[in-house]
Fold this sequence. Notes:
Low-confidence stretches: 222-228
Largest sheet: 7 strands, mixed
Order of helices and strands: HHHHHHEHEHEEEEHEHEEE
Number of strands: 10
Mean pLDDT: 89
Strand content: 15-25%
Amino acid sequence: MHPVERLRSVSRWSVDDDALAVEAAEALAAFAFDPAGLVVSCRRLLAHHVGNGPLWWLCARVLAAPDPAEACREAIARLDADRTADRLAASLPLQEHDDEVVAVVGWPRALDRALSERADLCAIAVRTDSSGLTAMLRRRSAPQAVRLVDGWMVPELDVSHLLVGASAIGAGRALVPAGTGEILATTRPAAGTWLIGGVGRVLPRRLFEAAETGALAASDVLGSDDDDAGLEAVSLERFDRVAGPRGLVPSAEADAHPDAPVAPELLRPF
C-alpha cells in the first residue's frame, strides 16, 4: 500500500487506543526522511483522533527525534511491552462473594487483557454518553460474559471497584468517556475508584491541554457518531489510584512523569 493511502486508512480507524498508535507509528515511518511530510502526517492523524493520548505521545516523540524512523520503532516496542494489564490483573483482589462485580467505564484494552488473566472476576460495562462501547466489547478477548448496564443502575449493585479508562492524562486531569463525572458522583465502590492509564497516556501540560481543547470541541460540534466525540475532562482527585506500567500509583502522582517532549508543530490549531 502507498504510504499516503496507508496514512488515510489509519486516519479513518475507529479504534481509539494504543492499537491505533502502533498502526500510526508504522505508517509514519514511511515519512521519516521527509520532515515537512512528517509534520503534515502527524497533524492529519491528530485531526481525526484529537483525544487519543498515545497518538499525541507518538507524534511528539517522532517529531522531536533525530531519527524519526528509530523513534517509530521504539514507540511500537514500548506500546507492545506495556505492563499495565499485568499490573492491573495482579492488583485486583479476589471477589469476596458471588454478587460482587467490577464496574468498567470505557472498556480499555488494558482492562480487557487483565480480565483475560482473571477469569474469577465478574465485570459489568457501564453505558455512558460516549460512543463506541459496543464495538469495544465486540473486540474483547476476556472470557467472561459481560453485562451492559446504565449508569443509574451502578449504585444499586454490589460494586467492589469502579475502573475508568483514560484516553489521556495530564495537567491534573484525565480525558475519559463523557458521562463519567456523573457516575463518579453517584457511585461509591467498596474498594475504590481506579483510573486506567498506560504507556503514552501521560502527556506534558501543553500537549494535554491541546488534546483536551480539541476533544471537547469535537464532542460539542461533531456529535456522538464521531470517533473523538463523547469525551470529558475530570480531575485526577476524583480517583483513588491510577493503574499504569508501574502498577497502582496515587492519583496525585499520575501525571508527574510525562515522557514526551512538547512539539510546537502540534500546538497550532488543526
